[in-house]
Amino acid sequence: MENSTRCHVETPHPYLDNDLKIDSYTFKYMCKLFEQIAQYWQLEMPSVGQESQLLVFIQNRIKLDLNYYIEYKNAVHVIKELCAVHGDPQGYIQLLTDPSGLITPATTPIARARQKVSNEFITLALAIGGFKTFGAKNALGYISGGNIENNVPYRVFKDV
Amino acid sequence: MTQQTDILIIGSGVAAAAIAQKILNANPLAKITMLEAGTKVKMRDFALHQNYLITGQLPYEFCQDQAYPTKDSIGENESLGPTLIPMQGSRLMMYGGSTVHWGGWSFRLKPEDFKLKTLAKSGIKALKGDYDLLDWPINYDDLEPFYCEAEHYIGVSGDSADPTVPRSTAYPYPEFPYTLEDKPSILAMKKLGIEYSHMPIARHGVSASDSPHPPCQTTGTCKYCPFGARYVAANYIDELTEFHNYPNFHLKTNAIVESLIMSDKHQVQGVTYIDKHISEHQIQTLNAKLVILAAGAIESSKLLLRSQSDHWPNGVGNDQDLVGRNLITHPYLMFEADLPDNPDGLMPEMDFPTLVSRHFDSEAEQALGKYIIVNPSASIGTRLANEMQSGKPFSVIKDEVTGKSKIQLHVLLEIFSQNRNRLFNATKRNHLGLTETAIEFDQGPDFNQRLAQIQQNMTRIFEAMGAKDTRLKTISWRADHAACTTRMSEDKYTGVVDKNLKVFDINNLFICSNASFSSLGAVNPTLTLTSLAIRLAMHLNQTVIPELEHAEQQTPSLQEEIS
Predict the structure, then answer these.
(1) Most CB contacts within 10 A, which of B493, B504, B543, B558?
(2) Residues contacting residue B204 through CB under 8 Å, at least 6 positions apart
(3) Cis amide leading into A105 (omega within 30)
(4) Most A CBs within 10 Å: which of B42, B46, B54, as the mutation test of the A interface?
(5) Which of A5-19, B222-236, B376-390 has the lowest mean pLDDT?
(6) Domain boundaries, chain A
(7) What count of other Cβ atoms lies within 10 Å of the Cβ of residue B208?
(8) Measured between CB atoms, which of A60, A101, A141 is closest to B220?
(9) Looking at the partner chain, which of B176, B182, B351 has a beta carbon nearest the beta carbon of A147?
(10) Which CATH class is domain B2-156+200-330+414-441+477-559?
């Protein structure tokens, strides 16, 4: 579609295609952060495809807002610093639980890493199946499937 | 510059889409122009869907009204009466209209709703308010076949065996079973003898048809469905423009209709409008043989009011000072109570409700104000993401999931038209260029008493669940279901349009919006509006358009006269 005219297409977003890609160094840290989220909260994650789900998610965030490229870079710096102090992987857990990450507005690097990166990864982790740990069959964001008799994609109450 | 079309539809929501579809089905060469004041927003985009999931921000928020002005903000629109009717969030001024954000609750009115004035006449005398009630000039049986067609058009999943309202045709898709979240409400209602049923919901189901609209995948992000499984008029108009061969169907976005042009008292000639793609100020003219206002109750009424001429000095159709008056909407009541525990670990699994009770939406309640009870989709349970993001450990969250919990039920209440409750054009323009809206509204002297009666019943239900401390969490008077401002009636002294939605005394102007409802009932209006749209399109196809064509054949064309 590179040759098509797009300047009159109505959109509220200046929409990047895949022009800017996250680098493998940053992505490696993001994958580990995602794994730590799953481990810390004992989330039932899908056995395959986690990394590709995360990659698509990260690319989508950057696609809508270029600032996310910097947010992921910032998160790497924060994780490395926390790991230097608390050890690895405890530095990751520190990012997920330290109350200093919750200050609003997010004016410190750790607060940005928490609110723009790890908190978003938590929502993603739940949405791709992590919620099942807590007993539900479906959750907001989870693509659970269609309404098929005898295979309803959520917990039902059988009215008798 | 003057342009010409045959059929002009103002607006691009469900009414506009359904009318255009039905006319084009009958005549693929029909010359139809649709003018939409708002813009297009990309639908069915996975990045936008994920952004909504993560941030709660919707890509079409800029298409809403802004909040009312305050001391510190410019804001938009004017609220003049003692009861504030919020505009922000109530509608979307965009391609696809408010269907882009609607919940999809797809109720039929009940037969008694069409006879409000007759049936509530004696009971309403006991009330203190000065109400202006109307019967519809059509009855349930008149509309029933169109309800069936509308359910198929917007793709409703529902329980075809539900006896709540009579039906002649099954829903196109089976009902969504009750979620486990419905269990406390169902057990309580059973104990109290309160009827309940499956929520009819505009979500496509699984089928073997070749529909381009995919089935619901229960993603729980319905305000921006990544698949387009919930009815959104924008997707359906896309289908008209992109997948069908309708060479004379045209849509203009960013086209703000300023005024109706009357060629005489009884004939609309066309409209003036601003095409923002060309200029923010330059007036364009579009002439049409038929004009259909399908721009929602608020904008349709305002356009009539500001279309003043020697023929209609108070605005088109407004010789009786009825346009914009008798405004009603549904107060949306959110009740909450505290459950001591949540042993099933109930939590939000869906983004739409599956349980509704129309027990109090009955003839017995009509003179007091009927209401429905809905078990909302996030009625109970822990918000896992919030708890984890706050840093709580697994063991704490696990205990919270089955521990004490708040539980909610929501109520939609019918109120009655009062002539003094009205909307009209304010003086300023909003951020999209439309004239702002002024709303003058008073909830009336009977509302608080009705609210107390409802709260008593809600307390009974919550207590039957074992929940305590029932409270009214919020009342929203938001204008989502604004209606009745150009009511359908038997005559021009009590209403603005006739039973075919034609404006009294004007031969070629129709209003198809919630404005034309004679009363609103207790339920969401969209399915009824869609039924009226399909019924209007049939009337146009069968009667109005053939008459127009016949008249044209009888009249020598300008070209012939010249030659």
Answers:
(1) B504
(2) B155, B157, B173, B211, B213, B214, B215, B216, B229, B230
(3) yes
(4) B54
(5) A5-19
(6) 1-160
(7) 5
(8) A141
(9) B176
(10) alpha beta
